[in-house]
Amino acid sequence: MSHHAEHFQALVQWLRQAVAPSQRFTLSYNAEASDFIRFNHAKVRQAGQVAQATVSLKLIENGRQAELQLTLSEDLEVDRQRLTQAVQQLSQTLPLLQPDPYLQLNAAQWQTHHVDDTPLPDAAEVVEQIGTSARGLDLVGIYAAGTICRGFANSDGATGWHQANSFNFDFSLFHANGEAVKANYAGQQWQAQAFADRLAQAREQLEHLGRPLKVLPPGAYRAYLAPAALDEIIGMLGWGGFSAQAIASKNSPLQRLYAGEARLSAQVSFEERISDSLTPAFSQEGYPRKDLSLVRHGLAGERLVDSRSAAEYGLQGNGADNSEMPGALQMAAGDLPLADALQRLGTGLYISNLWYLNYSDMPAARMTGLTRFATFWVEDGHIVAPVNTMRFDDSVYSVLGDQLEALTAERELILSTSTYGERQTSSSLLPGALVKRLLLTL
């Protein structure tokens, strides 16, 4: 048992005695031990470690609830003292609050324990491989690796523990002309060959960036969206797209899909796949999570339901967090071999990344955004020239609907690179998409 798990258990046992009989509590625990290594010109410029643990304590009494976040010292005596003060503070706050009409507590005494201690890559070996294979390249990037722990417990006896190791190498290769190729390699086991392939692909794209830019007029183009580009589109959909609250209040970009008025291509299936992912099998509210089929062959399936939506709309909660965003989204693969993608594209755009996305017409699931980094013009299955930054404006019902030609058989695991406050557990597993027509407006 890790020291994090022991520390968490000790705090929980103590809290169960410390809280007044009229009160109930929930305790959410977040911890990480991470290495960060920053590269510039393919050399290590900075290396550091972060070890931190925080808890969120919620106290409930007479239909009222109040919450406090605390940073832990990981010294048991000090942390008990901090929790004692937190319990006192919350107890004084509670009577001043209004009762919460959608407060719904899970009284089930569930237990879940998941520890994936796949050995982390040896940092020295990773640095060695990156340095050797990228010699002579202007490689800039950040390598982050380590253990992430999540815990949950409440006064009813439910406990959950989740611990997993992962790494994420987020890097760019810069051309002398200032253009860049962006790439990522992430997962739980560092495979030298997989990284070498990823770097070789980026290196090949870098060479193409030296050619004169092609200026395209606005219009409709055949396009291949690499998984990282597709991730931006699907990430936007995640904001409310599958959310029970957004669907019920008619604020979901996939409103028409869930109402049965629109559909996506039969090739498109989305699943929230918690099992075997880096995401814990329980929510911070204390509900177990299970795998959900969100879209089945182009038609709406299940939705993400947190406890408040369940109470407000009379639904069955399924362990979504209060954002009701997917945490481990998988898109079904297609049958186009990745090696044949350019050949099947023929003539059109190869888009490796998109950014600055926003909705241009939310009810129509219509988005706009810019191409970023390496976007190429392809003729007869061969890259001919880099393309200047273009703006696209098109509907998901088109791109992943009637204009979707094929999805790749291989998928890429994309782990959140966000380290804002702490490393994240969210991930997506996505294919690349060949689209018959993408609308470019600028």
UniProtKB/TrEMBL annotation:
Signal keyword on record: no
Biological process terms in GO annotation: proteolysis
Gene Ontology MF annotations: metallopeptidase activity
Organism superkingdom: Bacteria
Keyword Zinc-finger appears in the UniProt entry: no
Keywords: Hydrolase, Protease
Originating organism: Pseudomonas rhizosphaerae
Coiled-coil region(s): none
Protein name, as recorded: Zn-dependent protease
